[in-house]
Design a protein that fits this description.
It is built from one helix and nine strands. A hairpin with an 8-residue loop joins strand 2 and strand 3. By secondary structure, it is mainly β.
């Protein structure tokens, strides 16, 4: 036995949801592009450091994760991230920079501001490490022992 529905037939739900979806789309935050850029240079002479490895760790407020970059011949790096957020909060953004023959550098942005026009500019000054010249040979030793570089005897 089949039971017929009472009252008028229901409207298709897709048509009823269309105005709501349009309203939500109009109220959604506009996309904002955050630019993180900077220069990696030596302490003192301010000479650029090309080929430095830059790791940017994004806080959860900026989508999380990390980005890996390499500086160009002028020591510059730049990356963009586009988000749909009404307010950007850049606190917790970190930069880790490493380059051969230099002490590594770390910077944590603790300010909520993302810079003027959502551009974060960083100057990373790195200190040259004496005695870090490359020497031919292999690394010998075990964990817990003093490993050294040199030719096999």
């Amino acid at each position: 036995m089949r039971i017929a529905p009472r009252g008028p037939s229901p409207r298709p739900r897709t048509l009823a949801a269309a105005p709501l979806l349009a309203l939500l789309a109009a109220c959604a935050p506009k996309p904002v592009t955050l630019h993180v850029q900077g220069t990696v240079q030596t302490v003192g002479s301010k000479s650029p450091i090309p080929g430095a490895a830059v790791v940017i760790e994004w806080p959860a407020t900026l989508g999380g994760g990390e980005s890996r970059l390499t500086t160009d011949n002028d020591g510059h790096f730049v990356i963009e991230r586009t988000l749909r957020k009404p307010h950007m909060d850049c606190s917790g953004l970190t930069l880790n920079v490493q380059a051969d023959h230099f002490a590594s550098a770390y910077d944590r942005h603790d300010d909520k501001s993302c810079g003027t026009d959502s551009v974060g500019n960083f100057k990373v000054n790195m200190l040259r490490q004496p005695g870090c010249e490359a020497t031919p040979g292999r690394i010998r030793g075990r964990m817990g022992e003093g490993a050294h570089t040199g030719e096999e005897p």
